[in-house]
Structure formats: C-alpha cells, structure tokens
Design goal:
This protein is an alpha/beta fold. It has 9 helices and 8 strands.
C-alpha cells in the first residue's frame, strides 16, 4: 500500500488530503466529523483507510476548510457540500481508473453528506448521523435510552431498596420518568437531512452503534421501518472494540462491492 499527501483547490483555497492507493475501480472518500483532522480521532480514520486500501480500494481523506492543514474559514458541517464535492473531483483526478466512489461519514460528517444530497457519489455509508440542533452540545440520552436505564434499575433489588429507604431523590426520579415518556421531536436539522437524502438515488447504508447516544437519538427521529438501517450490537460511537471495528470494515467493503 502506498500513502501520499497532496492538496486540492476549493473556493480559492487549498485543502489538505491523504490518499491510500489501490487498484480497484471502486474507491472511498472518508469525510471527517466535527473539527477533527483527516486522521480521525486517535488516528482511527487513518487506520480505517489502511484496512480498506489493503483490500485494494483507494481511499481519500481530507481536511475541510479551516480545519487541520487546510486553508479557509471553517463554516461547519452544515456548509460542507462544496468541500465534499471538491474532494470527490480531486479523487477522480488523482485516480483516473475510478468508476465508483462511495462516501463514508460518522456523526455530523454523515449529516453533511445527507444535507448535500449525496454530492454525486455512487453510494453513501452514513454512521450515527447527528440530529441535534446545537452542534456543540453534548448528546443527551433519547427517551428510549432513558426507559431502558430505568427498566434495568427497577429489576435490581439493590436499586429498589435504595428507593424504599429514601436514598433516591424523588424529584430527580420524576424528571427522569418525564424524559422517559417524552415523544421524540423531529428537529429542523433531521427534517433537512431527510429531505437531502431523498435527492440521492444511489444505495445507502445507515450504520448505528447500539451504545451510542447520537445513534440512539437518530433512530428516535428516523423512520423505524427504514430497511437501510444496520445496527451494530454493543458498539460505541467510534466502533472502537475489535468486533465492532471488523463489522464496520465489512459494511464498507460490502458497499464498495455494490452489495
């Protein structure tokens, strides 16, 4: 595997990119989430790119405007469509044998791809899409997660004893129960993501890590009948354990194979 770095133009500035080369005609663009650089959190995107490239598929990662080594002003994931389109164009230029390019994004990178309507890609892999209006807020647990937590507590004799002996705040309990029965509200962002995705006519895989609050909130705001949703049991937001990581790689390779 050969890894090389280069830069491409976007809105008058230079964006930094890294390419893991491969001979296959189907390639992957990894869109970074948050304000993280193209290496990903704890170099997870770099490792993921190496895994996919070892299977023969070229992989492009890039820093959007104002992030990492790229020039320009960081305008956030809601305004990333131009950066993503420029990355796809650069990928085709650097790898002229490419016939299909699939995009992968986790968290608000998945949201950016949805808002952009797929940006001309052949397929999309959308992981734990971010649906909270405040992009800087910590993800609160959705009602389904709160219900599961309280159900587990009520099955525990120790927790029941704490309740009966006054060691549990009834005010706090009441607030928790109110949150557990609250109906999830579709946000403006979630609606915009849904509308954007309807403009895309290629194959879509929506990946959700079972233990991730962002993924749980997405499920609460999304159509439960959507057959494109795939749940990874026991996974956290970054698919950091070995089994979850292998599951993620398998999902990406299946998408690249056109399955």
């Amino acid at each position: 595997m050969t890894r090389r770095h280069f830069a491409f133009d976007c809105a008058g500035g230079k964006l930094a990119a890294t390419l893991d080369e491969g001979a296959a005609s189907a390639g992957l663009v990894i869109v970074g989430g948050g304000n993280e650089t193209r290496a990903g959190p704890f170099s997870s995107h770099a490792r993921l790119a190496a895994r996919i490239a070892s299977a023969g598929h070229p992989v492009l990662r890039f820093d959007r405007r104002g992030v990492g080594d790229s020039e320009g002003v960081n305008m956030g994931f809601r305004n990333e469509a131009e950066d993503i389109a420029a990355a796809r164009t650069a990928f085709h230029r650097e790898c002229p044998a490419l016939k299909r390019v699939v995009a992968f994004g986790n968290c608000d990178a998945a949201s950016a791809l949805m808002l952009a309507g797929g940006e001309g890609f052949a397929g999309l892999i959308l992981s734990n899409p971010w649906t909270y209006e405040d992009e800087n807020a910590a993800a609160p647990p959705p009602p389904a997660a709160i219900r599961a937590r309280y159900a587990a507590k009520l099955k525990s004799p120790r927790e029941v004893l704490r309740l009966l002996t006054g060691k549990v705040s009834f005010a706090k309990l009441a607030r928790g129960l109110a949150g557990a029965v609250a109906k999830p509200q579709a946000t403006g962002l979630a609606a915009a993501m849904r509308d954007g995705l309807t403009r895309f006519d290629g194959p879509v895989r929506i990946l959700v890590a079972e233990r991730d609050r962002t993924g749980q909130a997405f499920l609460a705001a999304w159509d439960a009948r959507d057959s494109r949703v795939h749940l990874c049991p026991g996974a956290d937001h970054a698919y950091s354990d070995d089994a979850s990581g292998e599951w993620l790689v398998a999902q990406i390779l299946a998408a690249l194979a056109g399955e």
